[in-house]
Amino acid sequence: MAVCIAVIAKENYPLYIRSLPTQNELKFHYTVHTSLDVVEEKISAAGKSLGDQRELYLGLLYPTEDYKVYGYVTNSKVKFVIVVDSSNTSLRDNEIRSMFRKLHNSFTDVMCNPFHNPGDTIQSKAFDGIVSGMMVQTG
Amino acid sequence: MADEAPFQFLHNEVIQYIYKSAETDNGRNIATLENMGYRVGQGLIERLTKDTARFKDELDVMKFVCKDFWTCVFKKQIDNLRTNHQGIYVLQDNKFRLLSQLSAGKQYLEHAPKYLAFSCGLVRGALSNLGVKSIVTAEVSIMPACKFQIMIQKM
């Protein structure tokens, strides 16, 4: 289960950040911000290396002492970042991939909503619901 | 995707409505239609590229627009894509779906731009969401064939 989920726009500002309320939220904002550099590096490096440069899922971006950060980029250059607890070793790669798929599907629905302007922060309740389902249940 | 007939009828009615509700016939109507197409293009491309692999370069993006995007919206592919490799692309469609009901020659040629504005916006919105800023214009010499000219803007 994720500890923090963020959606970042093409221009690198956050469209949506949600983290566990008990934790220090600013720390997560910083973590997500620094992970953007790694994402950029992966996108530009992928053009030169062979193999899965065509994949949208970026995999583990970098591990910190407490957390692991995973990234995913859509074709419209919107980035999804998921931060999970390092102590939670039971999460497999496939589960992270399916979490990103669900996020992407939900994000597509938000984009197609005529009341949502691209570039605004995401206010959709359905999107909130999907994200809550993925975050850790506290208490 | 949805049936094309309802979309064509809706498209025609939207154009009629905009022109009827505007008091003066200035360029604003075309701009309104184009902006509508822009927003729709953005959402549509998000849905269509959900499962495709990442695009390698600009030409890849244009080919996607000509094949998958056009097939999805207009049920056929672009007939001819030309480029000067310096940011200008010309897409030729010999039987544009939204014009084929209007006429099959030179009749009503002066009304054609109204019917192309939405599609120009559609292409511009799709490209902009894929990271390509552009200006899209369309020209018709003989209905229902039309040419869309895309000028890529280097940022």
Automatic annotation (TrEMBL), chain A:
It is found in: Cytoplasm, Perinuclear region. Its main location: cytoplasm. CDD domains: TRAPPC2L. GO terms for biological process: endoplasmic reticulum to Golgi vesicle-mediated transport. InterPro entries: Longin-like_dom_sf (IPR011012), Sedlin (IPR006722), TRAPPC2L (IPR044760). Pfam families: Sedlin_N. It comes from the Eukaryota. Coiled coil: none annotated. GO terms for cellular component: perinuclear region of cytoplasm. Keywords: ER-Golgi transport, Transport. Belongs to the TRAPP small subunits family. Sedlin subfamily. This is Trafficking protein particle complex subunit 2-like protein. It comes from Zoarces viviparus.
From TrEMBL, chain B:
The keyword Endoplasmic reticulum applies. One of its GO terms (cellular component) is trans-Golgi network. Its main location: endoplasmic reticulum. The keyword Repeat does not apply. Keywords: Endoplasmic reticulum, Golgi apparatus, Neurogenesis. It is found in: Endoplasmic reticulum; Golgi apparatus, cis-Golgi network. It holds the Pfam family TRAPP. GO terms for biological process: endoplasmic reticulum to Golgi vesicle-mediated transport; nervous system development. Component of a transport protein particle (TRAPP) complex that may function in specific stages of inter-organelle traffic. Specifically involved in the early development of neural circuitry, likely by controlling the frequency and amplitude of intracellular calcium transients implicated in the regulation of neuron differentiation and survival. Belongs to the TRAPP small subunits family. BET3 subfamily. This is Trafficking protein particle complex subunit 6B.
